[in-house]
Amino acid sequence: MGTPEWLSDNRGTAALAAMLAATSSHSLEALAAESRAMTLRRFGRTMTLYAPLYLSNHCSSGCAYCGFASDRKTPRHRLEPDEIRRELAAMKKLGISDILLLTGERTAAADFDYLQRSVAIAAEEMQRVSVEAFPMSVSEYRSLADCGCTGITIYQETYNQERYEALHRWGPKKDFIDRLETPARALEGGIKTVGLGILLGLSDPVEDALNLYRHVRHLGRTWWRAGISVSFPRMRPQTGGYEPPFPVDNQLLARIIVAFRIALPDTELVLSTRESATFRDGMAGLGITRMSVESKTTVGGYSESKEGEACEEKEKGQFEISDDRTAKEFCAALRRQNIEPIFKNWEPTYNGPSSIINPENEISTILHNNY
Amino acid sequence: MDVLQLGSYTFSSRLILGTGKFSNSRVMLDAVRASGAQLVTVALRRFNREQLEDDLFGPLSAIEGITLMPNTSGASTAAEAVRAAHIACELSGSPFIKVEIHPNPQHLMPDPIETFEASRILAKEGFLVMPYIAADPVLAKRLEEVGCASVMPLGSAIGSGQGLATSEMLNIIIRESGIPVIVDAGLRSPSEAALAMEMGCEAVLVNSAIAVAGNPSEMAEAFAEAVAAGRKAFRAGLMQKSGSAVATSPLTSFLGTL
Fold first, then answer.
1. B114 vs A347: CB contact, 8 Å cut-off?
2. Cα–Cα distance between A59 and A62 in angstroms, integer?
3. Does any CB of chain A come closer than 8 Å to the CB of residue B183?
4. Which residue of A has its CA nearest to B51?
């Protein structure tokens, strides 16, 4: 299977490229002003919050940049149902009702059945459950949707196939095209929203940003009911000591975010706790509409931290958190900026694959009766 | 007295407020009070019984003189909207339901087919159904036929601030409608709200323009005054915009000579 046609679709890319170019005539300040105004109009003075829950750090892939890659010495662990419930209870105490469940690539220890059971447990406690795990089949996605999973996050990491294949040294994630087609499979399976993203630092950021834009537009045109969100994770120090060959500085990251807001006025833009408190606070009004809060990137991190800070021999997370403020502190910072943190922005009655009205049946009966 | 009649309910205020985009609930409540609105919409998905600080319903229901109109924002099908309406009614006790079905969560344009079906079912069940629709005159009549309490066509896209971009279609809807027409979405300024009322809308719904204003309460008051002025002008009867000059010697005097 070759590279899909949409990766060379140039509708709308010229304007975005002009905003992202190193020699861009658009000043960052002017773009930020436009982005801020557009965000306010469409999303108001609000920020939707979520938190990640790492179910398992078992992994079968060899991603050169990841702290959970299968050749890392990190102790492996998965949460059992009672541990998941304990984590959920600790997260609910923070006010969290919108969560992202994470695993590594598919392994015997953390396979589809395990994930599905975990989603079902989470959906009992939380208003909104999304999953960032391994690529699945359409029918697997449908089963997850039936269990109450509404969203799938699946980053391409980089759209540069050569770089992609070099970075994903072994394992199922090595298949570039399969990864590229995963969001469409999720949507076909009845998942309502997909989160796309590039891991900034791995490859030419402007090229990746343009391809990410093409991916968003392609999915939007093909799956017109889909909710699409876009993230801009930037490489953080992690176990394994990978040095990103294309480091992205704060100026460029800010430019990418505001340019995406202008190019995609009504798309959810996400920023995680990988970024510093100062950067997150600054971007909160400038295009970002969804943020993670008080994140733990270790398996079992929420209930552990409640039991005292004494035990320091903790396993390492997938990456280092930069904004380590508590949910309370973070919300207070948002409010100081006149932005309302929203913990619940979903209703579980909207869960499950949507079935639309099929007027064909009724009409064919009418026609049949009349003739 | 000139009142807005929705089912058996009457309202002296013709400004309806949306609540979803404010910087905090205190600012929102102040704006609601300043607006004099008696009908306020709140999304079921923003009801939060587990965390009161995050809940929009509780603080709104504490304001006296306010009727709450839950909405189904987030639903993408008729079935989801009907389920949401049942839950909202149980939680709020309100007979009103604003049917909002936007299958595309980006542009938030309402689905006419699902909206029609949900409205038909809910009206039959006895809800006072207020469907959010594109400015489509035929859909508006179809919704009237199935017993909706009003129709709420959009002035322009939600959060776009493009005002009454659909005014040509709105004029047809207003001219033909037997139920109140309420412009919902797209209004940026009080003057646009006044214009909608002058055109014959029975009310307008405003959210973003007030929520993101520099001073939301003051903007809420400004909208209230504009809506009242527009309504008064509509009732007083606007001077005709003359399309052509009136001839000094009558053009049809020859008819008398026949």
1. no
2. 8
3. no
4. A95
CATH number at residue B20: 3.20.20.70
| Domain assignment of residue B10, given as a range | 4-257
Count structural domains, chain B.
1
In chain A, domain spans = 12-307+316-370
3-class DSSP state of B88: helix
Give mean pLDDT in consecutive 10-residue pieces for chain A, a chain of 371 residues.
87 93 86 95 94 92 85 89 95 94 93 97 96 96 96 97 93 92 96 96 96 96 95 78 89 96 96 93 94 88 60 58 90 94 92 78 58 51
Rounded to the nearest angstrom, the minimum Cα separation between B107 and chain A is 6
Give this complex's ipTM: 0.78
Class of domain A12-307+316-370: alpha beta
| Residue of A92, A345, A350 with shortest CB distance to B46 | A345
Least Cα separation, residue B252 to chain A (angstroms): 53
Of A44, A226, A338, the CB nearest to B20: A44
B21 is catalytic: no
3-state secondary structure of B11: strand
The residues, any chain, with a CB within 8 Å of residue B226's CB and separated by 6 or more, are B190, B191, B193, B194, B197
| pTM summary value | 0.87
Whether the CB-CB separation of B192 and B155 falls below 8 Å is answered with yes
